[in-house]
């Protein structure tokens, strides 16, 4: 049996009220709010969060593949899945690949993972998808899009949702697109995009798939339609004969927005959080055609440990004070960068130190047990030399030992940099890092924190990533609903 | 010794500053450039590729003698002095110039800037105020001071140093401030406000170091180096396991070494003046305790009682300190030594700020993330 053995999600802490967007442009609000990646987040950092959520309770040795899907990868040339492998401490003997260019790329990756595990060439493949697409200022997309990530572990053991059927077709149309030079998503006339693009393809895919599987709509307990808007969502369900009250998975359009490539998986994770053994789930995705998957929930779902998931991420948020803040967080408005850096970004330094910088490994002295970060070849306590084990600190909680609120080092849209010395629960290692996703005035000595991988600055023509700390998301890890 | 006017010296460059300080020192010692046998030159904010001894060579036209550039963060001025002392003590040279120069106001930004570390990402947003504020936060926490109470203690240190600086012609700032002004000043890096932070200044200072047994040939009132301590903490405090942030091992060990060399058993009672590294007010507070001037957690009481005021039992930073005199990094150690030197000689620039009967004094700098501390003990008597 091949299917989903674990799952996780990530929704950024920051949200923007759609009323604030509408006020800025003097047009109607779609209502609700959308998620906004912080100015230190991108599709890689969000995917890393989703993978860490997915890996709760999972032995890393089970993972031998990472597939990353996004239309907003921070590099055009340079693989993101490899970076994610290092950040999440997988491999290096692992297959990696990036999937791109279509909102269907996450389900394309899912299909590839299922096929690879079925064929026996791999046994545990992480499929992760993240997007932070930009709509033109004032456009409908600006309101309807959201930023998020999700991750699934596809395996042949411990399967909680077996993949029992799949269907795909492609269609060639320019409904939404970006050229390499485009920052914002372009589209053709909205009615054609919805009717001939989304609805026609989805209806064809679902009706054909059901026919092939010999199933009817009432055979499914939940159906996942990642629709562009609530009206289209309802009408698609009606057209296909699904009961919108009982069978439709919440599309989170009012709370997150459409998170592009990530959206089908995000909705699936939410459905899995509430699924019961025996449930049949229909997963679909649209983009240059459509995909459909039939999933069957197994008894293993009862044993799933708590995770942050969609519910935990939704439960904690900070609403941005203004539309302008969103514009600067997403780089649409330039910000004054703060004081210039004195350090030269260096690809070789980052490569040499990747165990500490990316994996967040410290060293545990084999002689005296002292844990230090970053990795120290000579122990600070007993001065043993090259006699240590690497220890992962990224997923260990900690607390603030001391902090400062620095007004010199920030950018103009985030002028206060919270500098912290974190004491990790792992051997009381100290980690000097910035705090993100917080209210600076609420920071206290001894407050609990967790680590999060972030993009800290641009330099050398590449992105410089490092770890920050943050207050634990209030939603915490959620037990499964029964 | 010699010391330039400190401040925003827009119209002069590093070479001019070197000339200003050195020629005062020549005159003070009654010598000229031909007498200098070697030079230790300290500066910090040089270009990445280094500048070696070019500044003193170009500016002072020191001909065909060894010039060594040193850099040890904020302890650079003391490092130049130490190099000169070791050169003379080794018997290699008789007359050596120690020179510290810093031209901060050519960099285009206030302060020392962001990313003060050794690595492109670990310390990408580290600033000096941001790092020393970590000590203030932890000090308040450990000793049960509310931020308001803690900031009030620190404000009194700023008020004292501004009062002292107001009487000092060569200081960068001459304004007196009140505790309330300090408390209501804009925040630079919480909990530190504007008046908790030292000035960013241009300046230079110089010392002529000679063999002790021939010092009387230059002046009738030479000042003797009684002890030198330099200590580097073994790991960046920010990442060092167990680091307390209310005490710094380099401060403790560098001062202990210098006191031992000078035969000082009770610095609180035996010292007549101390010029310590008040880059931030919290630094001066922690130094009181790490140098043994105050018991652990007891610095607040001494601040409240005025123990370190210019009329107090142990006057600290009588020229305004880094806070008011300014902090051109590579020059500061020699500038502080200059103040102690003049006070011991009884030759303070203005009589109203001359201390009475100064026999033994301390100058000190503390630099880096912070990590390195240098202490010099100066005295009126040989031996």
Explain the overall architecture.
The complex is a heterodimer of chains A (482) and B (383). In chain A, 24% of the residues lie in helices and 28% in strands. With 482 residues, chain A is α+β, with helices and mostly antiparallel strands. Chain A is globular, with a radius of gyration of 22 Å. In chain A, 50% of the residues are buried. Chain B is an alpha/beta fold. Chain B has one domain: Thiolase/Chalcone synthase (Peroxisomal Thiolase, Chain A, domain 1). In chain B, the strands form three sheets. Chain B has a five-stranded mixed β-sheet, sandwiched between helices. A four-stranded mixed β-sheet of chain B has the order 8-11-10-9. In chain B, a hairpin with a 1-residue loop joins strand 5 (187-190) and strand 6 (192-193). In chain B, helix 5 packs across helix 9. The radius of gyration of chain B is 19 Å and the shape is globular. The mean pLDDT of chain B is 95. Classes of the chains: A alpha+beta (482), B alpha/beta (383). Chains A and B meet through strand 16, strand 18, strand 19, strand 20 and strand 21 of A and helix 4 and strand 5 of B. Strand 18 (398-406) of chain A pairs antiparallel with strand 5 of chain B.
Contiguous low-pLDDT stretches of chain B (5 residues minimum) are none
* Tally of domains of chain B: 1
The CATH C-level class name of chain B: Alpha Beta
The order of strands across the largest sheet of chain B is 1-7-4-2-3
Q: Strand fraction band of chain A?
A: 25-35%
**Rg estimate of chain A, integer Å:** 22 Å
Give the C-level CATH assignment of the largest domain in chain A: Alpha Beta
Q: Can you give keywords for this protein?
A:
heterodimer, A: 482 residues, alpha+beta, Peroxisomal Thiolase, Chain A, domain 1, 9-stranded mixed beta sheet, 12 helices, 28% strand, globular, B: 383 residues, alpha/beta, 5-stranded mixed beta sheet, 4-stranded mixed beta sheet, 11 strands
């Amino acid at each position: 049996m091949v299917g989903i053995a674990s799952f996780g999600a990530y929704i950024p802490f920051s949200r923007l009220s759609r009323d604030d967007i509408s006020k800025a442009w003097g047009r109607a609000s779609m209502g609700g709010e959308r998620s906004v990646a912080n100015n230190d987040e991108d599709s890689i950092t969000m995917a890393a969060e989703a993978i860490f959520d997915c890996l709760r309770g999972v032995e890393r040795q089970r993972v031998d593949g990472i597939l990353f899907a996004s239309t907003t990868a921070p590099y055009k040339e340079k693989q993101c899945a490899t970076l994610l492998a290092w950040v999440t401490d997988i491999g290096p003997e692992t297959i990696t690949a990036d999937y791109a260019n279509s909102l269907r790329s996450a389900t394309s990756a899912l299909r590839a993972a299922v096929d690879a595990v079925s064929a026996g060439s791999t046994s545990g493949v992480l499929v992760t998808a993240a997007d932070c697409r930009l709509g033109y200022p004032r456009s409908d997309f600006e309101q309807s899009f959201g930023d998020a990530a999700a991750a699934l572990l596809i395996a042949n053991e411990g399967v909680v949702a077996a993949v029992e059927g799949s269907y795909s077709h492609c269609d060639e149309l320019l409904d939404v697109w970006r050229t390499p030079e485009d920052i914002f998503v372009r589209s053709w006339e909205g009615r054609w995009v919805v009717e001939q693009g989304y609805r026609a393809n989805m209806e064809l895919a679902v009706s054909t798939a059901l026919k092939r599987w010999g199933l009817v709509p009432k055979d499914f307990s939940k159906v996942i339609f990642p629709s562009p808007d609530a009206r289209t969502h309802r009408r698609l369900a009606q057209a296909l004969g699904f009961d919108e009250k009982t069978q439709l998975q919440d599309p989170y359009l009012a709370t997150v927005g459409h998170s592009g490539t990530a959206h089908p998986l995000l909705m699936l994770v939410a459905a899995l959080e509430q699924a019961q053994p025996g449930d049949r789930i229909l997963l679909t995705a649209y983009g240059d055609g459509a995909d459909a998957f039939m999933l069957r929930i197994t008894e293993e779902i009862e044993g799933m440990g708590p995770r942050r998931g969609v519910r935990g991420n939704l439960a904690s948020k900070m609403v941005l004070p203004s539309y302008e803040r969103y514009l600067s967080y997403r780089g649409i408005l330039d910000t004054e960068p703060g004081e210039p850096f004195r350090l030269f970004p260096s690809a070789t330094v980052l490569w040499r130190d990747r165990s500490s910088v990316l994996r967040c490994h410290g060293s545990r002295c084999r002689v005296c047990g002292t844990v230090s970060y970053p990795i120290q070849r000579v122990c600070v306590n007993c001065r043993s030399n090259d006699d240590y084990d690497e220890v992962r600190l990224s997923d260990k909680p900690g607390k603030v030992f001391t902090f400062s609120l620095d007004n010199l080092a920030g950018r103009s849209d985030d002028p206060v940099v919270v500098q912290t010395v974190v004491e990790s629960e792992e051997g009381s290692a100290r980690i000097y890092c910035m705090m993100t996703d917080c209210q600076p005035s609420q920071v206290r000595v001894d407050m609990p924190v967790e680590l999060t991988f972030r993009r800290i600055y641009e330099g050398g023509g590449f992105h410089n990533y490092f770890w920050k700390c943050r207050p634990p998301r209030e939603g915490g890890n959620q037990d499964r609903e029964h | 010794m010699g010391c330039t006017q400190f401040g925003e010296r827009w119209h002069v460059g590093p070479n001019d500053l070197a000339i200003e300080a050195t020629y005062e020192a020549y005159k003070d010692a009654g010598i000229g450039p031909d007498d200098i046998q070697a030079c230790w030159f300290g500066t910090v904010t040089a270009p990445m590729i280094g500048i070696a001894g070019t500044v003193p060579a170009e500016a002072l036209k020191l001909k065909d003698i060894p010039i060594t550039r040193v850099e040890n963060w904020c302890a650079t001025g003391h490092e130049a002095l130490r190099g000169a002392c070791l050169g003379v003590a080794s018997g290699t040279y008789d007359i050596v110039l120690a020179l510290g120069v810093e031209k901060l106001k050519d960099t285009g930004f206030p302060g020392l800037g962001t990313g003060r570390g050794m690595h492109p990402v670990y310390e990408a947003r580290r600033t000096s105020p941001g790092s020393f504020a970590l000590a203030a936060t932890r000090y308040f926490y450990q000793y049960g001071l509310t931020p308001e109470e803690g900031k009030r203690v620190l404000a009194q240190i700023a008020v004292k140093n501004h009062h002292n600086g107001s009487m000092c012609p060569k200081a960068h700032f001459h304004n007196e401030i009140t505790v309330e002004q300090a408390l209501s000043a804009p925040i630079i890096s919480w909990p530190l406000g504007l008046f908790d932070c030292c000035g960013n200044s241009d300046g230079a200072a110089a010392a002529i170091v000679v063999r002790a047994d021939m010092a009387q040939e230059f002046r009738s009132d030479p000042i003797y180096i009684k002890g030198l301590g330099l200590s580097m903490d073994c790991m960046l405090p920010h990442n060092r396991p167990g680091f307390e942030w209310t005490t710094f091992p380099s401060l403790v060990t560098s001062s202990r070494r210098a006191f031992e060399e000078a035969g000082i058993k009770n610095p609180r009672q035996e010292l007549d003046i101390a010029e310590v590294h008040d880059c931030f007010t919290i630094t001066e507070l922690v130094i009181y305790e790490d140098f043994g001037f105050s018991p652990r957690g007891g610095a607040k009481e001494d601040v409240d009682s005025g123990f370190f005021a210019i009329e107090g039992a142990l006057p600290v930073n009588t020229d305004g300190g880094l806070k008011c005199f300014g902090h051109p990094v590579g020059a500061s150690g020699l500038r502080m030594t200059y103040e102690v030197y003049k006070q011991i000689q009884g030759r303070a620039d203005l009589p109203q700020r001359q201390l009475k009967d100064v026999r033994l004094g301390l100058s000190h700098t503390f630099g880096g993330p912070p990590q390195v501390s240098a202490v010099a003990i100066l005295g009126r008597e040989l031996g």
